[in-house]
TrEMBL record:
Transmembrane segments: none annotated. This is Putative hydroxymethylglutaryl-CoA reductase (NADPH). GO terms for cellular component: endoplasmic reticulum membrane; peroxisomal membrane. Coiled coil: none annotated. The lineage of its organism: Eukaryota, Viridiplantae, Streptophyta, Embryophyta, Tracheophyta.
């Protein structure tokens, strides 16, 4: 079974990275778009998570 969603609070992570690296945190709006996919693997013993962030502005 594969489950997923959009924009799982990625803007908080992007803003924190921008602040830590002395960049403009107001750019997080475009950069916060992400797709999160989750899939159970190893007969349900493990969870494989993929996060794709196609629009990161630097």
């Amino acid at each position: 079974m594969v489950s997923g969603g959009f924009n799982a609070h990625a803007s908080n992570i992007v803003s924190a990275i921008y602040i830590a690296t002395d960049q403009d945190p107001s750019q997080n709006v475009e950069s916060s778009h992400c797709i999160t996919m989750m899939e159970a693997v190893n007969n349900g013993k493990d969870l494989h998570i993929t996060v794709t962030m196609p629009f990161i502005e630097v």
